[in-house]
Amino acid sequence: MKLGIILQSNKPEHAWNTFRLGITALKENHQVEIFLMNEGSELDTVSDNKDFDISARVAEFKKLKGEIYACGTCLKLRGKEESKVCPISTMSGLLKMIENSDKVLVFG
């Protein structure tokens, strides 16, 4: 199965659970793509804390060949030109992810 996940939140628990699900699906041999939009595009500024090791989850997700993209317009609205976590994408990229996914989930 191909799973598309949209992360719209910069809350640590939302990001942590998004990547936990992605990792679980990848380990079960599914394909997973995560699209960061709205506050989710701020993922590179969400700090780890004692409960949520987000940077470790993101690293593991990438190591397992999960794909992550960030909304370029969302980044621009936040005064950023790039994401330190992943490549920039567009609404066309999001639409393509949705069209190619068997299931799409939204966190946040």
Automatic annotation (TrEMBL):
<protein>
    <submittedName>
        <fullName>Uncharacterized protein</fullName>
    </submittedName>
</protein>
<dbReference type="Pfam" id="PF02635">
    <property type="entry name" value="DsrE"/>
</dbReference>
<dbReference type="InterPro" id="IPR003787">
    <property type="entry name" value="Sulphur_relay_DsrE/F-like"/>
</dbReference>
<dbReference type="InterPro" id="IPR027396">
    <property type="entry name" value="DsrEFH-like"/>
</dbReference>
